Amino acid sequence: MNYSGTQLLLFFGLISLGTIITRVLPFLVFPENKIMPKYIKYLSDVLPFTTIGMLVVYCLKDISFTTNPFALPEIISITVIIILHLVKKNTLLSIGIGTALYMILINYVF
Amino acid sequence: MKRHISTVRFAFPYTVPVLSGYMVLGTAYGILMSKQEIPLFWIVFSSIFVYAGSMQFVAVALLSAGFDYPGVFLMTLIINARHLFYGLSFLQKYKDMGKIKPYLVLSLTDETFSLLCNTEPPAGVIPKWFYFYISLLNHIYWVSGSLTGGILGSLIKFETNGLEFVLTALFIVIFIDQWKSAKNHIPAVIGVLSAVVCRILFGPSDFIIPSMIVILLLLTLIKKPLERRPVK
């Protein structure tokens, strides 16, 4: 696929702008001497946990349990990641082995 | 100048875990982007100016879905909405940072956030420069990783089918770490269940916004009971 410079500038420019907004907004809305409303404080405590849960589902949005290979590569790799991470507690190891296993499974096994 | 060098020396050891993580994930990002035939310039550009790992991986997926600019912008806001919470948590910490405050605010990634959350500057080091060099070092690692990946991806033609799973693996690992650190798992369960139900109801391409709405509604509804059993 060939993209034009304008397309790429718009694409990455928008992503950059959106990211900047999410980073700057709290500091703009709550200048250095203003107190944060309780509701916002509550959300800021719980939302990080909720968002990651949602993002895990986002990553797996295209899997299908009804067609071959019945999400088996994902199920196997995720199980390995969970066990490895609980036992070894090494982020990079869990991600590295999990991804390598997934690549082997979808390319050579299923 | 001398003081800056000694601050970098103090800051560096704290960033070593991020160094390995960002080099590997940054390289994976560079390879995936170059596989999409994105020029090296834009790979590096995005890592400098976006500098948000998970969003950059999602950008790879969005590229293959074609250019839907409003969709891209909205997705960025949604995926990076968690930055709002990092910012809110650092309102106090980033007080009185002077000229470098904009850089500190704009370079606050998941990793820099969690690093600075758990780290107090050593005695004798000026906090603001300590924060600055930790942020800057992490940023350099991420850009170097992407550059390496971009070059590797264009030089070597190896099998990358499935490499995008690195993002799934990353989120699962973060999820496990959060699960272990949380005293209360209701928010995490709400996130997963809302997204699963919305994915079933709305299909794979239109379920993120409904999920966010459902999540906000549920969290608002259970605010009182949840505050009695705090998450952290």
Number of helices of chain B: 12
Query: Residue share in helices of chain A?
Result: over 70%
Give the total of domains of chain B: 2
Distance linking N and C termini of chain B: 40 Å
- Unreliable stretches of chain A: none
**Alpha-carbon distance between the termini of chain A?**
27 Å
Counting copies of identical and different chains, the oligomeric state is heterodimer
Computed over alpha carbons, the radius of gyration of chain A is 20 Å
Global mean pLDDT of chain B: 89
State the order of secondary-structure elements of chain B, H for helix, E for strand.
Answer: HHHHHHHHHHHH
Main sheet summary of chain A: none
SS-based class of chain A = mainly alpha
Overall pLDDT of chain A, averaged?
A: 89
Architecture overview:
The complex is a heterodimer of chains A (110) and B (232). Chain A has 4 helices and no strands. Chain A is mainly alpha-helical. The relative contact order of chain A is 0.06. With 232 residues, chain B is mainly α. Chain B has 2 domains: 159 residues, no CATH class; 51 residues, no CATH class. Chain B is built from 12 helices and no strands. Chain B is globular and about 60 Å long. The model of chain B has no long low-confidence stretch (mean pLDDT 89). At the A-B interface, α1, α2, α3 and α4 of A face α1, α2, α3, α4 and α5 of B.
Topology of this structure?
The complex is a heterodimer of chains A (110) and B (232).
Chain A: H1 5-29, H2 38-59, H3 72-88, H4 91-109
Chain B: H1 2-35, H2 40-49, H3 53-64, H4 69-79, H5 81-89, H6 101-106, H7 110-117, H8 127-155, H9 165-181, H10 186-202, H11 208-221, H12 223-228
Helix pairs in contact in B: 1-2, 1-3, 1-8, 2-8, 10-11
Label this structure with key terms.
heterodimer; A: 110 residues; mainly alpha; 4 helices; extended; B: 232 residues; 12 helices
What is this entry, summarized?
By secondary structure, chain A is mainly alpha-helical. Chain A has four helices and no strands. Chain A has one domain.
